[in-house]
Every structure is written in structure tokens, then in C-alpha cells.
Design brief:
The complex is a heterodimer of chains A (about 575) and B (about 700). Chain A is an alpha+beta fold. Chain A contains 12 helices and 20 strands. The chains are: A alpha+beta (about 575), B alpha+beta (about 700).
Chain lengths: ~575, ~700
């Protein structure tokens, strides 16, 4: 079905026409999407099945990502280095048809945190290694000190869970039961986890079958030159986009509240240099790695920087290894943005969010019309576990969104997942049927959107109660101290807060990264996530917008008066 | 008004007339069947989007006059409407308020807490239909197991009602947590609201609109239904009056998203059920035609100017899905599993920043249209490519009424070709292949990804541009046979003639799928049985015409997505459970590649689909005639650098049984079918073109 096109001078491989490249890319992307959906629908972990915290990708034989399906920016991180590591460990000759490799370690496996487990399968054609398919999924538990493997209070990776180096989980087409048993013994609720591993393996098998079919249409040479062209095309998109940015050097800094282990005000700094169609990110000046689990691996840093750049210059384009081509990233060794063994990394998403914020802040001068003010800058996590009234052990983890930064021409979004994560909430009716928990409130927090010509998005309040049992709660927030900043005169958004509210009226404020706290059924855990910064001078906000802010009840009269000098007309307000 | 379903007269006894009318954006199509006279009439009038019923009345009047039809002999008038869909897209809907559980007024606004596109920080979801000040909380709370956690505080409901009385709302939607399973609080709150607000405000509950778990989707569906109540009520009343005034005595019926028809009464109560009915009628029309012609397993491909709709029919039955989006909001109601993609005749070709050629989803539409229409469009569209390849007539379309400027098509394609350094024809070929690839991807989603091998199916191509791309799409999917109906452009109207009355009911109650939960499962079953009986009675379906298909939604305990497994009618016996469980394991393996025998299975919902079987006119057969001869020949590009002379036939000239081999072109008023070398075409008894594709092409 494809025609061979003229070769470039001096290039022995046939090049495909721009039409054939697009057709091949379509075909590979379809396969990724199908793997993604199959895993989502058959998995057990809430993170995968309902919150879609998983991704699928196809790599070329050299281990470069060619297509990544609909998926999370952070997962690209764990994908970028995975095949390289497997190739280094096993060599091409050590990788056989029917093998699948499993890995989750940020250090030896170049992942980003332990709960994200990758499973990789080589694809052979006529006895030759041609491609790889892989998927990554966030498991509800990977063992370690605390249920959910995400809690704070740990200082080295051994405490965070089971470290899996790249090893075979499938050999000769059969699951390697020795390895599977070893993993399952180390994780909580093993029968559910088995379902997750099964879903991931089946997802890869599906990808392998689909590629077999694709091979009937495309020759080996066509695939080789086609995948190269797909990577090149993304590199070209990136270069075109970077060329549109003004040359120059841009700086910005922000601070993380704390690491949950006593280290506070942790700086994240970036210096960005743009010249022609290339860009350099240097994170010199960022804090040394911390005791707590806020450390980011280099892969996580790469993914965050690529995300921030892509939203500014090419939001609609595909993601693959070509994105790295014009991008140079440096960061001090053993720093909070480029951690070394044995740093704890479970909460690296908090740091990734802040890396995105500082990049957008730095580039505000270069592209003020495309950046947005600081978003909630956190990845609020709540983990609940315990023995329900029936005595059965349960474990539930979720992440909560917050405000999104105001834009140059409209308000920021209220109560939403931002930047490097976009996981869905679990419906309350699903949550309460499955776990002995009750959500008592889930709402926007009044006055939490930073004032501005365009206001920042609002934070979320979610209130949890353990039904008829004492539960164990661990949480993780950010921006309880340093609020999300506004841009060009816009004000800061609301800060986050975690409290236990007892039915007798007693308020018990908690640190923003509480670990393994017991909460009786006569109290609720209330989590408030940060809002977001405003954009532009609040005094320029339109009358219609001000009236809507007030009428909707999202902002109090006091707030409106203080920031906007707005005095409502009488009796316009419905509670 | 006489009830149409009681008029079960035998078609050959007296003159009976069946009419299907489908209102589209540009045309209002009529398909008329007079089975007594073995006659079918197709008719088109321009649509009147502001008041769609005007075009219907005008068209009916003309039809009755031109064909000597007495209005009183119409026994079925089935109507497909997009009034609801358009009202929602334009947000010209009723004013809705929401009364909800304390602590959750923002739920409709928070949605699922995600943004529409990961890398797009500028894009937002549609603005919530109910502004925050009209979302009022009342004190009440049910637990997941039906225990009352906080009793309904009636005073707070009364206070809410009094507040809303001043707001001139059209509808109040009562949306409480866990009401899908435990609706008592919702029902009591609704009674209080009705009492205070009086007759002029419709009060609906989430548990009556669609009692399924997952609160956001249920609330969203309820609000959408509420928003359409006034719009559809006004439209349907006007429509019924207007056709009544013409002398039509049969009660009109309205087409549904899940396929099938509903009475006007049901459509006024549940207007949201009509919202995605457009593509469903086409799929049903294809199903009826394909089954009549002896093909049970078909994939439908309906291509218009801006989009392609595809559906899969096994043994003539389309699959249902239970969640779709409408105007940017989730809708949890059964709908035919029709997959729509932005690929049609007007789709624009463009070069992306990576230098690769892309097609759509932007379309030149009817105005400014493809470059070759000379209506102001300058961008290269799929239609322009087809003109350059000789597949479409390069002088005129629509029986000569619309002039075509091939030179403008060439200029538009040349501009693209230059930028990707290919020649004109290579580029035109590329465009046609890319648009086919988009359609192929859409079909893969509903076939391969659902565990069906498309190679076992025939492709049923219709819509103005479906037959143009059918064979290319079929070949890519390993399909060997393509079927093209006699009037590809009005199949939706025809589908309305061949549908039954349909209703779907569902009830959720999470339970372990085992003998210990049998009583709970059967309580749900009994409730559904009662609703089914009530529906049959209300819709006056005679006992002999009643059908009920039961299924149960199951998953492994701990999963979150269910598979619908057919089951016997409620109540179930303990021995049924094993067999159903066995089917579930098999279905899971087919869908996801593995099964977990021994793991507990969870029962989520029971569903029943009810049919009130209606009499359907037989499809008319094509009258015998002398085989048609080509009217001329033209040069058609088969592949790059391979032009062939192809005889051009007029579709109206073709006789039943006539067959020939490609290359050839078959032209009709609003549609062109190319046959490629080696493809064998036969006209069947009903006038369908049945094309067997050349092997190995």
C-alpha cells in the first residue's frame, strides 16, 4: 500500500513521503490508544481504572519513544530511559521474543517513583529486534513502610517500597512465577495487584498482536525509516516553536514549603537560555536533595521541563523522543531536582509541579500572552487505610486538584488537576461503595482564587470520615506557607490546609505532610488545596465579572472590597 | 387521536402509508413507503432550522399532493429530530435549578476534576448549565448501603423552594447522592418542591431520569434532560398539532439515541433520549436493508460533508454504549455505539508544523465549500481530491445542477503539493488515503477493539460520500464486500420506517454476584419487571408484540468497568448464576486478553431493553428493466501513474441482476460510486449495489 519515495542523497534507507509517515504514525498511535484503554478497563487499582494514571508507548529498536498514547506527561519520564537500561543490562542478544521486563526503580531503572511500574516487551520481526511496546501504571501499593507507598516521613528509598530492577516478568511467553510471587508477597492487597499486573501484561500482548498485523503492511525498512521520520518530525515541531521565542536569558525562583522531615523553604531555581531553535534549562541554585520524599529524579525533571515547554510552543503535537532533540537540561547532582541514590522520591510530583511553575514564571517575560500565573503547585495526596467495620483491611489513595493559574485573557479554572497530572476523581458513590469511608463535603473554597484582572482558579475542600472505625491517614500538600503567585499585578491564590475536625467542635490543625495519623469515626479529615494566582491588576477587572464573582457566592463581600474595592448592590446575593 | 400502534392493518388490504422524516441541517428528508402499491418515494425539501416543523409540513403537503396520498391513510409518521441537540449546542434551553445534598453544590462544576486536554492550558470544559446561585444545598445524606446518615430536613427543602419560586426557573432537578439505589429522599424532596412551586415548574429527580451510580454523570444527564424539557415540549406540541391539522391521524413517533422510536408522550418526559438519535436512524436503516438483502453482519459507514459515522451490527443488531458526551457534557443513557470522526467530503487538507500532511477535522462545510464548488472556498478538500482523480464528475454534480470547477480544485491541491514537494496527483492520492485512514481508525475502535474481526463483516456505505471511500476503507480492514443502498443520501429517513418502539431501563445495586445475593438481585429485577409492564401498558403494546432483552453488568470485584452480559428475564435462579458467570469470564478474556476465574464477580446493574414490535413495510423491489448502458466514459486515476478509461453508468438505469466489473463509475443525484479494476458489482433485487472487491488488490 505504500510507495517508496526518492532517497535523500547519501542516505541508503528509503525515505517515506510525508503522507506515508503520517499514515504510519496513525497506525502506531491507534495501537497505543488501544493498549491504554484495555489496561484502564481491566485493572484493579483505583489509580488506573478510574483515575487513568497509566500510559502506553512504542519504542524503536534503539529504545527511543516513537509514540506515546494519550497519557500523562510524568510517565514520559519513566519511558525515556527504560529501554536503554534494559539494553545496557541484557544486551540485544540477551533479549528474546516472548520476554517482558518489569521495572520501577528511579535509580537503576530510571523511573520516577516506586508505585509507577513499567512492563516492557520487545517486538521481533523475522528474528530481528524491531520495536518495543511498553506500559506504565501507578499501582495502589508497592509495599514499604506505609500503606499506599506514598506517605511522607521516609528518608530513603528502601522505606518507600519494593525496588524492582529491570528483570523478566515474562519469559518465553509465560509469566515468570518466581518473580511474580516475590513481588506479590511484598505488596498490600496482593490479589488486586495480581489483577493489575495481568492487565499490564495483557496490554502488551495486545500491542504485540497489533504490531504483527501492522508488519503485514509495512516493510522492515519502511518501519525503520518511518519511526525515524516520526521522531524527526516532533524534533522539527519543537525547533520551530523555540525559534518563535525571543532569544535571551530568563530566570525565576520559588520555594517549596517543606519536605515533611523538618527542612523548610526549599528553593527551586531555573535559568533558561534561548538561542535560535535550541533551549537550555539550568537548575543551578536549587536546594540539595532533602531527607523527605520530595526528591525528583532526573527523568522526572526532564518530563516536567518538556511539559512546560510543550504547553507554550506545541500543545497539539505528539510526544516522543524528538522532544529532547533541541532541549538541554542541567541540574546539580544530588539536588532536590536531580536526586541521587538513596533519596526518597515518592512525592516527586510536588516538586515536578513547582518546576513547571518556575519555568512558566521565567518565560513570562518572553511570552506573557501564553504563560499562566502559578497554579496550585501541588499534587495533594490523601491515603486512608484501616480495618473497616467488617474487619476487612482496605487501602485507598487519591489525589486532589486545586486552582489553575489565571490566563492573559480569562480566569483560571476552579478545582482541577493541573500540569503534570490530570487524573480523574473517584465518584463518591463508587468510593463509598468500595471503602468504609464517607465524603462529607467536596466543594470550592471561598475566596481562594487570587485577585486580578483575570482571577486565579479556586482550591478544593474535601472532607473525609471513617465510618464506624478508626482510620489511618497520611497526607501530602504544598503551598500551605508560600501561596501560588500572581503575574503582572495579579494577587496570590489561597493557601492549603489540612485539619482534623472533631464532632465536639475541636479543630486539630495538622502539618501539611502528616504521616500515619489515627482518626476516630467521631472526627473528619478536612483537606483544603491551594487556589491559584491572578493575572493583571485587579482594579481592571470588569464589572460583569465582579458581579458574577459575588453573585455566585465564590467570593465574600470582604474579599471583594479589599481587592477590588467592589461594593455590591443590595440584595443581589443568593447564599 | 388514533393510536398508530393499534392500526395493525395488513398492508395489502388497503392503501396504507408509512412515512419517515429526518431533519438535517441542510435538508429535510422523507422516505415514504406504500407497501400496498409496492412503491417507495424519496423526497427532499430545504430545512427551516428556526422552526423545523415548517419544512416537515411543507414537504408533507407537497408529497400528499404530488402522489395523491390521503393524509388519513398515513399509519406511521416517524420523526428524527435534532431540535434537542441543537438547543443544547446553542445553549438555548430552559432555566434549570438544582437541589442537591449538602456539601456538594459544586459537584456539577468540578466535574471529574480533570481538564479536557493535558497539554492545553487554555482550553476549558463547557460552562456548567446551572449557575452556582441556582444550585441549592439541602440537609440530607444516604449512605452507600441505604442507611440514612442525615434525615431529609424538610424545612431546608421548603426554604429552597421558596427561594426558587422567585427565580422563574422552568425546571428543578433534584440530585442527591446514592439516589440511584435509594431514591426516597429525592422523591420526598420532589413532592415538597412540587407543592410549593406549582404546576408551571417541572420537578425531576436523578433517580427517575437514569438510576445508575457515578453521581456526576447521573446529575449531568438529569440536568441535560431538565434543560430540554421546555424546548422539546413546545416543539413536539407544535409538531403534533401541525401534522394533525394536515389530517394525519396516526400518533407521530420520535427517534431515540438508542435506536428505535418513542411516543410523543415519552419524548416530552424524556427529551434527552432523542438527543443523539441522528446517527442511530442511519445505522438502523442499514441494518434493515442489509438483513433483507441477506447480510446480517455489517459495519456501517455514513460519510457526509464534515464527519463519518461508523457502527457495527452483529446479526443485524447494533451494539449499545451507555455513556456519550453531548455539547461537552457527559450523558449516561444508552445510545447506539456509533463512532463519529471529523472526516468527510468537505474536510480540509493542511500541512502541520512538522511538515506532514493532515486531513480535517476542519471542514469547508457547504459554505464556503470545497474549492471546486466556486463558492468562495480556496482550501483543498477531500472532494477536490476526488474531482482531480476523476472519481467525482469534474464538470457538474447533483444531476448537473451544481457546476464543478476542476481548475480551482487543481490550484488548491497544487498549493499544498508544492509545500510537501510532491506532485498534484500524489498529493490528491495522499489526501484520499489519509481520509480513508481516519475512517479505518474509527472502525477499528468499534470492531477490533471490541473483539470483532472486521474481515467477517460487509461494509455498508452510505451518506453522500460513503460510497466514494467505501472500497478503500474496506480493503484496509480486510473486508471483501461493500453494499451501497439505492438512496444512500436518505437512509436515515428510511431507517425511521423500520424501527420499533424501544425503551431501556436500568437499576444499579452493587452486590456480590453469588447465590447469597440472589434476593437482592431479584429485588432489582422485580422492580424492573414492574416498570417494564407499566411501559408496555402506557405505550399500548399488544402482548404478542412485546419483547424484553435482559442483561446484567458485571465486573471482577475491585474493577471499575463493567461488561454487559445477556441473561434470562428476572427473577434469576441460582443455577443461572454459574452460566452467566461463565459468559462473563469468556467476555472478559475476549475484551481484555485475560480472565481471573475464581476471583469474585460483582453485580453492578440489571438492564432491560423493551421492544414494542411495530409492523414494518417491506422494502420495495427494483422493477425489472433492460440492463443499463454506460452514458459515456471518463479517465479515472486508479493508482499513481495509472489512469484508466472507466464507463460511467447512471444509477437509475441499472436493472436488478445486472452485473459488471470495474473500472466503472456509477453516478446518481447526490452520490457517486467508483468501482476499481477487478471489483465485481451486482445489483440485487432491492436495488442495492453489492460489490465484491478484487482479491489481493
Amino acid at each position: 500500500m505504500t510507495s517508496r519515495h526518492r532517497s535523500r542523497a547519501g542516505n541508503p534507507t528509503p525515505t517515506l513521503s510525508p503522507i506515508d509517515v503520517e499514515l504510519l504514525r496513525n497506525g502506531l498511535a491507534s495501537i497505543c490508544d488501544e493498549m491504554y484503554t484495555a489496561i484502564m478497563k481491566s485493572a484493579y487499582s483505583t489509580n488506573i481504572k478510574e483515575r487513568h494514571d497509566h500510559s502506553a508507548a512504542i519504542f524503536d529498536a534503539r529504545g527511543r519513544v516513537v509514540v506515546q498514547g494519550e497519557s500523562l506527561p510524568l510517565h514520559l519520564a519513566s519511558m525515556l530511559g527504560l529501554v536503554e537500561v534494559v539494553l545496557e543490562r541484557y544486551g540485544r542478544e540477551g533479549i528474546r521474543a516472548g520476554d517482558m521486563f518489569i521495572s520501577n526503580d528511579p535509580f537503576v531503572g530510571r523511573g520516577s517513583h516506586l508505585p509507577d511500574v513499567s512492563i516492557l516487551a520487545p517486538v521481533f520481526r523475522d528474528g530481528r529486534l524491531a520495536l518495543f511496546v511498553s506500559n506504565i501504571a501507578h499501582h495502589s501499593d508497592i509495599g514499604g513502610m506505609a500503606p499506599g507507598s506514598m506517605a511522607g516521613g521516609m528518608t530513603e528509598i528502601y522505606q518507600e517500597g519494593l525496588r524492582i530492577p529491570p528483570v523478566r516478568i515474562v519469559a518465553g511467553g509465560e509469566i515468570v512465577d518466581d518473580v511474580m510471587q516475590m513481588i506479590l508477597l511484598n505488596v498490600r492487597v496482593p490479589h488486586e495487584r495480581r489483577g493489575d499486573y495481568n492487565a499490564q501484561i495483557a496490554g502488551n500482548r495486545l500491542g504485540l498482536r497489533r504490531l504483527e498485523e501492522l508488519f503485514q503492511r509495512w516493510s522492515a525498512e519502511q518501519i525503520e525509516s518511518g519511526t525515524q521520520a516520526i521522531i524527526d518530525s516532533v524534533a522539527r515541531r519543537m525547533r520551530t516553536g523555540i525559534r518563535d521565542l525571543s532569544d535571551g536569558t530568563y530566570r525565576f525562583a520559588d520555594v517549596l514549603d517543606d519536605d515533611g522531615m523538618g527542612i523548610t523553604d526549599i528553593p527551586i531555581k531555573v535559568t533558561i537560555r534561548i538561542k535560535g531553535d535550541e533551549i537550555w534549562f539550568d537548575f543551578a541554585g536549587s536546594a540539595p536533595q532533602v531527607r523527605g520524599n520530595m526528591n525528583n529524579s532526573f527523568a522526572g525533571l526532564q518530563a516536567s521541563a518538556l511539559y512546560a515547554l510543550k504547553v507554550l510552543i506545541d500543545p497539539d503535537g505528539p510526544t516522543n523522543h524528538g522532544m529532547l532533540d533541541p532541549v538541554h537540561i542541567t541540574a546539580p547532582e544530588a539536588s532536590v531536582v536531580n536526586a541521587s541514590f538513596p533519596a526518597a522520591t515518592a512525592a516527586r510530583a510536588q516538586t515536578c509541579q513547582r518546576v513547571v511553575d518556575v519555568i512558566l514564571g521565567a518565560l513570562a517575560r518572553a511570552v506573557p500572552d501564553r504563560v499562566i500565573a502559578a497554579s496550585n503547585g501541588a499534587n495533594g495526596v490523601a491515603t486512608f487505610s484501616g480495618h473497616g467495620p467488617g474487619g476487612k483491611y482496605y487501602l485507598y489513595m487519591e489525589t486532589i486538584g486545586g486552582g489553575a493559574g489565571a490566563r492573559t485573557y480569562k480566569d483560571g479554572t476552579d478545582g482541577v488537576q493541573v500540569h503534570i497530572t490530570n487524573t480523574s476523581n473517584l465518584p463518591i458513590e463508587a468510593l463509598e461503595s468500595e471503602y468504609p469511608l464517607m465524603i462529607e463535603r467536596y466543594e470550592l473554597i471561598g475566596d481562594s482564587g487570587g485577585a486580578g484582572k483575570w482571577r486565579g482558579g479556586m482550591g478544593l475542600r474535601r472532607v473525609y470520615r471513617g465510618l464506624d472505625h478508626t482510620l489511618t491517614f497520611s497526607g501530602q500538600g504544598e503551598r500551605a506557607v508560600h501561596p501560588p503567585w500572581g503575574l503582572l499585578g495579579g494577587k496570590s491564590g489561597g493557601r492549603s490546609k489540612i485539619e482534623v475536625l472533631h464532632d465536639n467542635g475541636k479543630r486539630q490543625p495538622l502539618a501539611i505532610k502528616p504521616s500515619s495519623l489515627e482518626v476516630p469515626p467521631t472526627a473528619v479529615v478536612s483537606i483544603e488545596t491551594p487556589g491559584a494566582g491572578g493575572y493583571g491588576n485587579p482594579r481592571q477587572r470588569s464589572k460583569e465579572k465582579l458581579e458574577e464573582d459575588y453573585r455566585s457566592g465564590k467570593f465574600s463581600a470582604g474579599f471583594m472590597k479589599k481587592h477590588y474595592a467592589f461594593v455590591p448592590k443590595k440584595s443581589k446575593r443568593k447564599p | 387521536m388514533l393510536n398508530a400502534y393499534l392500526l395493525r392493518v395488513k398492508a395489502h388490504h388497503l392503501m396504507t402509508v408509512f412515512i419517515g422524516v429526518d431533519v438535517g441541517g441542510t435538508f429535510t428528508d422523507f422516505s415514504v413507503s406504500l407497501p400496498g402499491e409496492h412503491r417507495e418515494i424519496v423526497y427532499k425539501v430545504p430545512s427551516t432550522p428556526a422552526d423545523p416543523d415548517r419544512a416537515i409540513v411543507a414537504g408533507l403537503r407537497e408529497l400528499f399532493a404530488q402522489h395523491g396520498i390521503a393524509a388519513g391513510s398515513v399509519v406511521r409518521l416517524a420523526h428524527g429530530t435534532t431540535v434537542g441537540t441543537n438547543a443544547l449546542i446553542q445553549r438555548r434551553v430552559g432555566k434549570v435549578a438544582v437541589v442537591t445534598t449538602e456539601g456538594f453544590r459544586d459537584l456539577l462544576e468540578i466535574r471529574r476534576q480533570t481538564r479536557p486536554k493535558v497539554y492545553d492550558i487554555h482550553m476549558d470544559h463547557s460552562v456548567v448549565l446551572v449557575p452556582r446561585e441556582l444550585r441549592i444545598e439541602v440537609r440530607e445524606r444516604m449512605r452507600a448501603d441505604g442507611q440514612v446518615h442525615v434525615p431529609l430536613h424538610e424545612k431546608s427543602v421548603e426554604a429552597a423552594a421558596r427561594k426558587l419560586a422567585k427565580e422563574a426557573v422552568n425546571c428543578v432537578a433534584v440530585c442527591f447522592l446514592h439516589a440511584h439505589a435509594y431514591p426516597k429522599h429525592e422523591q420526598r424532596a420532589a413532592r415538597i418542591l412540587r407543592r410549593v412551586l406549582g404546576k408551571n415548574v417541572a420537578v425531576i429527580t436523578s433517580s427517575s431520569v437514569y438510576p445508575e451510580f457515578r453521581e456526576y454523570e447521573r446529575f449531568s444527564t438529569t440536568v441535560l434532560n431538565g434543560a430540554l424539557l421546555t424546548v422539546m415540549d413546545a416543539y413536539l406540541a407544535r409538531f403534533s398539532r401541525a401534522v394533525g391539522a394536515l389530517g394525519v391521524k396516526a400518533a407521530p413517533t420520535i427517534s431515540q439515541s438508542a435506536g428505535g422510536l418513542m411516543s410523543i408522550g415519552m419524548a416530552r418526559r424524556s427529551p434527552i433520549r432523542s438527543a443523539l438519535s441522528g446517527p442511530a436512524a442511519g445505522a438502523l436503516g442499514a441494518s434493515y436493508r442489509a438483513r433483507t438483502a441477506g447480510f446480517a453482519d455489517v459495519i456501517t459507514l455514513d460519510v457526509g460533508g464534515t464527519s463519518a459515522d461508523v457502527a457495527l451490527l452483529t446479526r443485524g443488531e447494533p451494539d449499545l454504549v451507555h455513556s456519550r458526551t453531548l455539547a461537552g457534557f457527559p450523558l449516561r443513557l444508552p445510545a447506539l455505539d456509533v463512532n463519529s470522526v471529523g472526516a468527510g467530503g468537505g474536510s480540509i487538507a493542511w500541512i502541520d508544523r512538522d511538515g506532514l500532511l493532515k486531513i480535517g477535522p476542519h471542514s469547508a462545510g457547504a459554505v464556503p465549500g470545497p474549492a471546486c464548488y466556486d463558492l468562495g472556498g480556496t482550501e483543498a478538500t477531500v472532494t477536490d481530491a476526488n474531482v482531480l482523480l476523476g472519481r467525482l464528475n469534474s464538470e457538474a454534480l447533483l444531476d448537473g445542477r451544481m457546476k464543478i470547477r476542476a481548475d480551482l480544485a487543481a490550484a488548491a491541491v497544487d498549493r499544498l503539493a508544492k509545500r510537501i514537494r510532491l506532485d498534484r496527483l500524489e498529493t490528491a492520492f495522499g489526501m484520499v488515503r489519509l481520509v480513508a485512514a481516519i475512517m479505518v481508525k474509527a472502525i477499528r475502535t468499534i470492531s477490533i477493539e471490541r473483539g470483532h474481526d472486521p474481515g467477517r463483516f460487509a461494509l455498508f456505505a452510505f451518506g453522500g460520500a460513503g460510497p466514494l471511500h467505501g472500497s478503500e476503507v474496506a480493503r484496509e480492514l480486510g473486508i471483501s464486500r461493500v453494499i451501497i443502498p439505492p438512496n444512500p443520501g436518505i437512509l436515515c429517513a428510511e431507517g425511521l420506517l423500520n424501527s420499533d418502539l424501544v425503551a431501556d431501563f436500568v437499576q444499579t445495586a452493587l452486590a456480590l454476584f453469588s447465590a447469597t445475593s440472589l434476593a437482592r438481585i431479584n429485588r432489582v429485577g422485580n422492580a424492573l419487571t414492574a416498570r417494564a409492564r407499566q411501559w408496555f401498558q402506557r405505550e399500548q403494546v399488544a402482548p404478542a408484540d412485546r419483547r424484553a432483552d435482559w442483561s446484567t453488568d458485571l465486573r471482577y470485584a475491585g474493577q471499575n468497568f463493567e461488561l454487559s452480559i445477556p441473561c434470562p428475564a428476572a427473577p434469576l435462579a441460582a443455577r443461572d448464576l454459574d452460566e452467566i458467570a461463565g459468559r462473563f469470564h469468556t467476555a472478559h478474556e475476549q475484551a481484555y486478553g485475560f480472565k481471573q476465574v475464581g476471583e469474585p464477580i460483582e453485580f453492578v446493574s440489571l438492564r432491560v431493553k423493551l421492544l414494542g414490535v411495530l409492523e414494518k413495510p417491506e422494502l420495495a423491489k427494483l422493477a425489472p428493466r433492460a440492463p443499463g448502458k454506460p452514458i459515456h466514459t471518463r479517465r479515472v486515476a486508479i493508482a499513481k501513474d495509472a489512469w484508466r478509461d472507466a464507463p460511467v453508468y447512471r444509477r437509475l438505469d441499472l436493472a436488478p441482476g445486472q452485473q459488471f466489473e470495474g473500472p466503472a463509475i456509477i453516478e446518481q443525484m447526490d452520490c457517486t460510486t467508483p468501482l476499481f479494476p477487478g471489483d465485481r458489482m451486482r445489483v440485487d433485487d432491492w436495488g442495492n449495489l453489492v460489490v465484491d472487491l478484487a482479491k489481493g488488490a
